[in-house]
Amino acid sequence: MVRKTKGFDHKAHPIYTIIGYTETREEGLQLLAEYNKNPYDVDASKITLKELFEKYLKTKKYNKYSSGSRESLNVCFNKSVDLHATPYKEIKAYHMQEIVDESGGYSSQGAMRTFFKHLDDYAHELDICNNKYSQLITTDKISPKKKTPFNMEEIDALWDNLHLRGADDILILLYSGFRINEFLELLVKNIDLEERTMKGGNKTETGKNRIVPIHPRIFPLIENKLKANRSTHLIHYPNKLTKVSYHDYRKMFFDPTLTTLEISHVPHETRHTFRSRLDSAGGNKVSIDLLMGHASSSVGEKVYTHKTLDELRETIELLD
Fold first, then answer.
1. End-to-end Cα spacing for the chain
2. Which candidate in 103, 228, 247, 311 could, as Cys together with 112 as Cys, close a disulfide (CB 3.0–4.6 Å)?
3. Using CB atoms within 10 A of its CB, is residue 96 exposed (0-12), middle (13-18) or buried (19+)?
4. What is the pLDDT of residue 8?
């Protein structure tokens, strides 16, 4: 037992704080020397990864994240179950690396590394640990994947199979340019059927709460979705009124629909298709950037941001 006198009781007997336990006296003296050099809250040092994450969930910083980021952190927490009961101060780089290596592909590994980085930063704020081992984590390298847009045959197949649950959603994505998480966050109150517009977007300052005109072809799809919708969100679970998570949405709607039609795409390729088709149709670049929530690269284009709704509508209706 390695202990430190922190005071005395009314009988002048020493009151000890137990710093930890070691197998040998030499290791104990080293631990005591480290503590004397940089004293820390012994109780805080006993906080487990699970307890640290639960405290982190109550921070203002966590609650400022988008729902997608919060969901990702929770998924990563579940993947780190082998370390849940381990005092965070005792977790080293190799412990984190093992979890990262077993978490899946490049994207999953990157998410796990981000998860540990958040916990390291928070633990450092609480004086639980001085080392940020997440900085030593490595992930698999990946070559950039080429995005493949939907072709017209695939888009026509979706129009011909609107009876498939999820086909209408994919078409709305193809004709609006929303990111999948922006689409899942889309609130009913932000859809104006009279003005034929949708307001959404949450990833960047340029893309937040942007106005997207509703293309005439998808107007009946959105109108139909709103008729029996009692949820706050346009997209919700079939048997309850809460917003669908990204993972459940892919499992329940997006992937099954495309599998049935023998089409292979990921959700982000709907957005890539939207941009590619507008480019091919000769759409105004500034309008396209505004519709997608992108900041224009040219200084002149950055200044010229006062596109009217009619101009945006004219651009989006270039899609057939």
1. 76
2. 103
3. buried
4. 81
Q: Give the Cα separation of 256 and 247 in Å (integer).
A: 13
Per the model's pLDDT, the better-predicted residue between 140 and 231 turns out to be 231
Q: At how many degrees (to 10) do helices 167-174 and 219-227 cross?
A: 130
Amino acid at 141: K
Distance between CA atoms of residues 282 and 288, nearest Å: 10
- State both tokens at 177: 């340019």
Q: What is the pLDDT of residue 60?
A: 87
C-alpha pair distances (Å), 317 with each of 20, 175, 282, 290, 314: 69, 9, 12, 15, 5
- In whole angstroms, what is the distance from residue 119 CA to residue 48 CA? 11
Residues 107-137 pLDDT 10s: 889 999 999 999 999 898 888 888 899 999 9
Q: Mean per-residue pLDDT for 199-208? A: 67
On whether the CB atoms of residues 113 and 143 are closer than 8 A, the answer is no
| Secondary structure letter of residue 252 according to DSSP | I
- Is 173 within 8 Å of 160 (Cβ atoms)? no
Asked whether the beta carbons of 204 and 295 are under 8 A apart, the reply is: yes
Those residues whose C-beta lies under 8 Å from the C-beta of residue 152, and which sit 6 or more positions away, are none
Question: What are the helix (H) ranges across 19-105?
Answer: 25-37, 42-45, 49-56, 60-63, 67-79, 93-101
Query: How confident is the model over 278-287, as pLDDT tens digits?
Result: 999 999 888 8
